[in-house]
Fold these 3 entries.
Entry 1:
Amino acid sequence: MKYIDEFNDPQLARRLLDEIHATATRPWALMEVCGGQTHSIIRHGIDQLLPEKVELIHGPGCPVCVTPLEVIDKALEIASRPGVIFCSFGDMLRVPGTDRDLFRVKGEGGDVRVVYSPLDALELARCNPDREVVFFAIGFETTAPANAMAVHQARRLGLSNFSLLVSHVRVPPAVEAIMTAPECRVQGFLAAGHVCSVMGMAEYPELAERFRVPMVVTGFEPLDILEGIRRAVRQLERGEHRVENAYPRAVREEGNPAAVRMIEEVFEVTGRSWRGIGRIPDSGWRLTAAFRAYDAEHRFDVGGIRTEEPAECRAGEVLQGLIKPTECAAFGTTCTPRTPLGATMVSSEGACAAYYLYRRMNAPAAQTGGAGKQEVAPVA
């Protein structure tokens, strides 16, 4: 396949669906790890086209969604200070903190700017030597190389007014946390192709073997996802639990060694809190001692901020795959994209936003606490 349209071909999709229907003889529950995959699934109605035996559980793979509330509050505190230019990707501006968001800070006079790359923030630091420039460095392994490069460049250029507020998370420890949770029903994973394009697949065989679950590295177009589901179901029916690469046009076994070297030079593994889930050991990165001078949390002394999640928001259960968004009483009522309670309703990759955007407002809540295949309204 040479062109993107081929990955949306309805005839090829029907062939894959027919094979999935023919293969699945027992109920299986698969988790797609990435929020980009979730949006593609909901947008194209893939979950509605699958056999009743195959359920898709939405995982925690949205970097905006899993950024913990306390880090949002640290961002708000830093962005409110005079002399600071606070830079972020656009989604983060509407993620609610304890009592406001970055848009509110901007409206109150804070210099909050949307950028498209950490190197844009680095350029702002170069052009504004009298201002402190902070970049909100969130994300999974995918965005870590660019953020590491920005810090590396800042040191090379001698820019002392540039720093990162880091909230990087790692996928393999999250998979382990999901599989060891008492309520876990996941029997197979569609692994995030963009993460594996950076880090490779070396960390996954041990997880697949230990938890006896197939893990299929999958892309984001409809046919990518259907092919990932087909391979995962085939393994489950055969009693296999291997790592397969269904995204070879972007993913190599070793990943991107140059990007990994850059990450390992600038960052070190640490425990990290995930919004709505809690602290997961070894699930994040922080700047190493050699680059600690560029750590905004230390520079602005905001490490002591602690918060509590709002009780009415069930985003943590959505992120763990325990419920579908429509099972939350606040969904579409007190929680909408204009008045979000949690990041899953804000982010362009959030599961709640996907359900709201693609006309699932009338989907009846399942009565099983997430178990079984949910009945949903047809996608228009």
Entry 2:
Amino acid sequence: MNEIAPERIEVNGNAIAVRHRAGRAPGLVWLGGYRSDMSGTKAAALDEWAGEQGLTATRHDYSGHGESGGDFADGTISRWLEESLAVFRHFTQDRQILVGSSMGAWIALRMVQELRKAGEGDRVGGLLLLAPAPDFTTELIEPALNASQREALETQGYFEEASDYSPEPNIYTRAFLEDGRRNRVLEGIIDTHCPVHILQGMADPDVPYRHAMRLVEHLPADDVTLSLIRGGDHRLSRPQDIKLILRVAASLVEHAAKG
């Protein structure tokens, strides 16, 4: 599928690339994962489906990702959250479904908190969280650090780790980990005031499905669904995974339209 050239919005000196499909609300807002971009399989499938349904769809690359400007090593959850809020406010109107993948699910949850603080909580009509990784810096990365990684953080301010998804290594900076602690959400009830549907692969090597189960404990009991996918990995990009994602997205859009 040929992508049209993205629009750009400047946030804190970085040009953030955005692809916005006009349509009716409630629409979809895609929030990608760590080191992923808005042209991935799931994001493209959701955008195409939204077009078929006449819905608005918005996706962007965080700074240091994909077609956006900025240095990846400067990225933090706070920075990418601010960019996501700027895109949301600039490009969308009315109610939207936030679709967050992996780290994007963490950013989606933080967006809900920040929008509610600003009196804009009713702009979010639902959350679709795919292999959610909230608080992954404190819950998954830091507890697993070895001695050499801890030393690298202290002496050079970052450490590198081989990636299963790219020939380039993952880079985790001390600033990124410290900022992660300031953005933790798994400390109390996360009041979303909208339906939440979590899709989690049981064969996910990066985010254990028990992490998704723990997230459920921090969400209000009403309108929260956790679907465990036996054999599903972290990407959730198989044809059957995409069909399920689109089916859940359609259900959330229908619910938000009635509300």
Entry 3:
Amino acid sequence: MPKEKKSTPDEVNDKVNVHEGHRERVRERIRTGGIESLADHEILEYLLFMATPRKDVNGLAHELIEKFGGLGGVFDATEKDLLSIPGVTKAAALFLSNFGGIYSRYMQSKEQNKKYLRTKREMCNFFVDRIGHEKTEIALLACLDVHLRLKRLIRYSGDNVREISLPLKQVISSIASTNCSYVVFAHNHPGNSTTPSKNDIDYTNTLRKQLDIFGITLIESIVVTYNSATCIIDYCKKKYTDMGSNLTNAEYELAQTATIVQCEFSTYGDGGYKVTYCREGENNTSGGFYEEEIVLNTSTDNNKTKTNPNAKKDNSNSDK
């Protein structure tokens, strides 16, 4: 029986690299035209190059796009869901399921020392963009300096779709280590309802009081979904207006907190502060601040702290 002819190294490489020319053509298109020159399935195909042995992944990219409803759906899919598709390697599933997190970390790094959160609208949009799409519950803490500039973004994630464990002591320690002046807390509701739960409200109020001990102000706690958000403190204020005193203790205390987004403050008279802030709803493209003098008088009534802001002066036309 004649011996089977062995393939030469060059012939083996030709077989292995049957799609290598295609991969290099894709890379060259990116070099010359940028990533924008590729269709969605081609972008996914390019990413699959990184975590898939040398084989044609064009068909797999098409299948993933169709299965998960687009490029964004693929990035939002879990590792388990991706592994259910024949041809997806463990390395590819891990990479693609964490691509959203990689992008979030990129944006955090890019915005460090540049991003300001001066209005609640900016805050809501900021968090919706980052965690609104997540399929499991994620919490983010934006630690801001005295000018409401982002110092650090702290992320917590959990395995449970509906809830996340946030040990208060650990959270406070992480925040205090940033030497920040203000904090905005946010978490997503994968069920797409932005109505705060009782646990959301209780945790927000406890976090607010603990941060006060360290001289850090909780500006707002926000519940987000993929396209909407609810500010819990504002929610409690509206509930107080609609229902009067028929609130839980946590709702009542949150409803009585100051409504302004605070920035640099100094003592004002007897028992008050002079604060600068960015007014809600203003198109403040110049980046300046509006000044108002607020008197914050604190009194105790049945162990409930009431804070009553009374505007004394409004110089809304003068930027600081």
